[in-house]
# Entry
Amino acid sequence: MVYQIISYVLLAMKFYTYVLIARVLMSWVPDVERTSFGRVLYRITEPYLGIFRRFIPPLPLGGGYMDFSPIIAIFAWSFVIEGVAIVLKWLFL
# Structure
């Protein structure tokens, strides 16, 4: 029973990784952000991504700016997933 709960928690966290990646890909096509799907993704991911945007400004690249904060956020999220997995397995298994 405990193993199933741990696997569901980790599955939900990995699913959020895919949501973050979808948000990054969605930013390449600006019209998608105006759809209902885009607004839902924005509401789900912006609280987490906003933390990184406060500390990592967009860098000038050619004629525009490149926002590297989502890349850093996804890497940080993968470390969080691994840390949670280790802690949950240590506590319950």
